[in-house]
Amino acid sequence: MNWVDRLADAASAALVWACRGCTDESILALLREAAPEEAAPDAYAVLRRDVLGEAALAMQGGEEVRFAAVRRDFALGELAELCLWLALAAARRPVLGRVFLHFWGQPGATLEAARDILAANRPRLPVAHADCEEAFARLEPLLLPAPSGESFLRRLLTADERVFGFLSGSDLPDALLRPFCERVPCEYEPPPLYARQNTADELAALLRFDREPYPAAVHLAGPRGCGKRLILRHACRRAGLDLLFCDAAALCRLPEARRAEAVLRLGRESLLTGACVCLHRLGAAAQALPEAVRAGFSQRFLSELRPLIGGGLPVFLCSGEDFDALPYLDEYAVRVDVPAHSMPERVALWEGYARAYGLPDDFPCGECGSKFRLSAREIEKAVRRLASFGEGAPLTAARIEQVCRDMIPFPRAGNILPVETTYTFDDLILPEEQKQTLLDVCGHVWRRHQVYDEWELRRRYAYGRNVSLLMTGPPGTGKTMAAHVLSNLLGLPLYQVNLSQVVDKYIGETEKRLEEIFETADRCSCILFFDEADSIFGKRSEVQDAHDRYANTEVSYILQRMERFDGIVLLASNFKKNIDEAFMRRIRYYIEFNMPDEELREKIWRGCFTAKVPAERLDFSYLARQFELSGGSIRNVALNAVFLAACEEAPVSMRHLIKSLRQEHLKQGKALFREDFGVYGHLL
Asked: Which domain holds residue 289?
């Protein structure tokens, strides 16, 4: 049954009876065209009774009758109801616009017209002014009258496309809202929630209508990708609430007047469909604004949402931790913090998605959850990617690491720089003790989930759980190479802190930039590498002036931040004594790099050349015995010698190495003469 036509018929009948004394033939012709039946004193009352009775019977039979739901949800009295029907009639039968214009001065329905028409059809029951005010208050959120200087009685009330479409059975959102809104009915099964079931249960309990007080707004605060919307979908499904997701960033890009209109339409969409509005990407909305107006965004944006909040159904706000909502809301509101996933939650997510996508039973979920700080969305994408390889492509450790690294967002901060790592563990020529310490660092990362969670030591070690390694020793002894090797062993990207962009003479700037670095490392699951670390982690000194006081404050800040950091930090310094003792207590592992002995030097010399480098009669034993050089210096000498030979288009010989050795010693301020090269002195 077309209920809109039945409502328009009833409204037209009431209008025809109210205009029965008209003598204008053109107006009478329009009335006959809109309502061809003869006007009768009780036509409107009979039609109204029939329509409402048929609607009640249809609803008892399980049929959805939307106009009846609108009458109930907007609490429309008879006057407001007639005004809505008149607006529908004007939309359905455009010729009625001239009738309204002739009698009431507006090209459509007004409350004044509805009052006069109702009085003409029920003369014994006059309409009071207070009834008109209440009717307008009921209709305003539904028909959204445009602002004007007219009295509320004379303001044009139009059944726009969305009202007409909804009553006709359309579920498409308002045309203004479609680009950035999506309705999710509660009967839609959300994706599985493999972690934070308790949070969803608590939120569902909060949304029970039989509990007081009932929140007008719920603020879910947490970092991007922590599962706020998925938790909300599960909670609303249990509470029987539909959701209308709205992209707040897209909403904020609208011009101010258009944005105010969109907020009103959001409220109407919520009332029409019974769906709770969820505004997400609030952090992106703030970032899209110019920096000059970004401060105070929370307060300004929430003031624009006042027509939406407190309309009956709760409004959900999804944002980062730094968005403040509760201080600027007059209604009762609740904040639910959703932090980044902990290690046990990441492992649970890996296990759940691995089962769902059919990965092998021996898939290293614990190791992946421990090493990679991925969000739930990123973990699902990684598992889906791994599952797409099929049976013909085995899931090797290298492939798993590469897929996980592809999910890690690239840090955009200019104060850390990505480092290309090519060295492997076999390239590192060190005493066995130092190499074993590097393996211990890797074992710490690989086994964190087992130790902290399966063996329940996380509560006993509530802070200071980072994996930190300090490497000290003379230049060229392998500290940087060891950082590269660790990156490859762990399958995690290495980022070197750009000290030139961090250390600042202005008070507080260094700490601010270090905070950005640690936050970036938290988000991106990368290894932080501080080369020349004593410039930041240096010893505190006795306070003699203001400079000393603030320098010590800087070191104290880093000490506290290291305690809270949960990632991997590598520090390199030429001198252990330059590092503050308080840092030494917080450092988990320590390696002292010494100058290589003769045996190691010979291994380093031999490792500097590949099989494809043409060479003849190179005396590595002599070179290792005669010259006490660091590994870095040996590599410099070998590379320069190869270039000398390449320029001559000749194989690398001892002559090229002797010449390159002399240049390397000159860099260090040492002059070598012919006799210093012994049996090879004649090559100079």
From this structure: 178-337
